[in-house]
Amino acid sequence: MDFGCPDLEAVFKDYTQRVNEAAAQGKLPDVQAVLVIEDWQKDLKKITPRIIWTDNGQRKSYERQIYLHRARVSE
Q1: DSSP 9-44
Q2: Which tens digits make up the pLDDT trace of 30-67?
Q3: Strand partners of residue 34
Q4: Domain count, the chain
Q5: By CB atoms within 10 Å of each CB, which of 12, 15, 25, 68 scores lowest?
Q6: pTM of the model
């Protein structure tokens, strides 16, 4: 494969590893996790890590919006 983004692959690998470790420790039962990346404005990405799990029979969720501007990446 001659395409991709090694930096993004590293972030996704770390995210996956952390979610899987928490699930294995019983901290996130029945976990589902996604990383949504959207073009938000010119030179601006909106990144939303979203985690859904079960806690005492109830579905819980956590998400956070992170905004990443192209100019900041090159600093």
Answers
A1: HHHHHHHHHHHHHHHHTTSSTT-EEEEEEEEEETTE
A2: 999 999 999 999 999 999 999 999 999 999 999 999 99
A3: 50
A4: 1
A5: 25
A6: 0.77
